[in-house]
Amino acid sequence: MLIGVDPNGTKPDRPEQVVDRFEPHNPQGPTVFGFQLPNIFDNSGTVGYEYKEWVIRPGQRLYIFGEAHDRIGPLVIGKPEQKGFFIISTRSEQEVRDSLRTQHRLLAFGIPAAALAGIVCVVLGIVL
Fold this sequence. Notes:
With 128 residues, this protein is an alpha+beta fold. The chain is built from one helix and nine strands, in the order βββββββββα. It has one helix at residues 93-127; strands spanning 4-5, 16-24, 28-32, 35-38, 48-55, 63-65, 67-69, 76-78, 87-89. The strands form four sheets. Strands 1-8-7 form a three-stranded mixed β-sheet, with no helix packed on it. Strands 2-5 form a two-stranded antiparallel sheet.
């Protein structure tokens, strides 16, 4: 049985980046008698354009966590109707869990440490 995925604006976790380039802005002026004249009226201030593209290639294994529904016709996995998580990832379930566990540990230690540092800075600022 084939089940579709309705991303509905959700960005996938860790897709493959295939394009990352910068192209300088080079405004072209008019061509007169085969000569390219500078564009003296371009005052946009644009330095250039940055292009980035990500893809999920056909056949790529995905980990998808969401709600199965048939609201749009065929059976698909999408965002839960009520509150809940929706994940589309190229990483495995265990890799996603490990990453979230690491983030939670960093927050559990980082927030109290930052609060303590803030209190120390306030106290030292008042004393000085």
